[in-house]
Every structure is written in structure tokens, then in C-alpha cells.
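Hi F.,

I've been meaning to write this up properly since the lab meeting, where we talked about keeping a consistent format for the predictions we share between groups. The idea is simple: the sequence comes first, exactly as it goes in, then the C-alpha cells exactly as they come out, then a line or two of notes. No screenshots and no reformatting. I'm using this chain as the first example so we have something concrete to point to.
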Amino acid sequence: MALLQPPVVVAPASDDVVARLDEDLRAAVRRDGIGPQREVAAVRRLATGLVRDHDERSLTGMVAPVADPDALVAELVARVAGFGPLQPFLEDPTVEEVWINSPDRVFVARHGRHELTNLVLTEAQVAELVERMLKSTGRRIDLSRPFVDAMLPAVI
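Output, unedited:
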């Protein structure tokens, strides 16, 4: 009689794992002098290597395994070279426009109609996203100009 083992369930990457790998990726980008928005392929290679190393360590039980290494690489690249939590909307061909009214009021337009998303950002994430987005446009935002409308560069 054979004993059946329950299937091993691998959870998505924990916030701690993602945060640590994000930190490691940013350090590697700085170390190698990579411009993250200009050299996305290089950032992706570094992220792939970090996730592969993490995956190999998970075989020893030193760290928790991740369910989808490719998704983790994509998230890390979006965080470092893209627009973080907004990246899925920017890559969605049905999304025509994205705007943030407040950290908990992120909208997209699809087919000419606006939709409130379920994305909730922190104040720090909004500030970082706005700074990153405006860096390539030559526009600025401050108390005298609290709103900005800008076209983003091509999607990564």
C-alpha cells in the first residue's frame, strides 16, 4: 500500500522576499552603473539571476520557494525599471489612460470609459511614481502646480 503525500503548495513570493530581492536588484543596478529606465534588458538579466539564485537556495530549505519565478522577475523589473504597481495597467493594451487622484483613487480609462481600480498605493509610492514618470518628460509638480499631465515613454 502506497502512502499518498499531500501536494506541495508553493505560495506566491512573500512581501519580505520581494522586498529583499528588490533591494538586492537596486544594489546590483547601482553597482553595475545601469540606467534602469534606459537599460531594461540589463535590469531583467540581473533580476533573473537573483530569482534563479533564490530558487536554488530554496532547494536547501534556506529560503521559501516562490510559485512563479517569471512573475517575480516581472514584478522586480516593474519596480526597478518600470512603474511598479502601475506597470500592469501600462502594459494592458485596453488601457488608454491612467490617473491618480489620491493613493486610494487610481483610475484607468478603457474604451473611453473611466474605471476606479482596486489598487491602493502609499503616499511614498505615489511620490516615487510621479518623480519617476516626470523625470523623462521635463515637467515638474509642486505646490504651485499640483497637477500634471504628461505622456510617458514607451512601455518596457
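Notes:
Residues 1-11 have pLDDT under 50 and may be disordered.
The longest helix spans residues 40-58.

If this format works for you, I'll send the rest the same way.

G.
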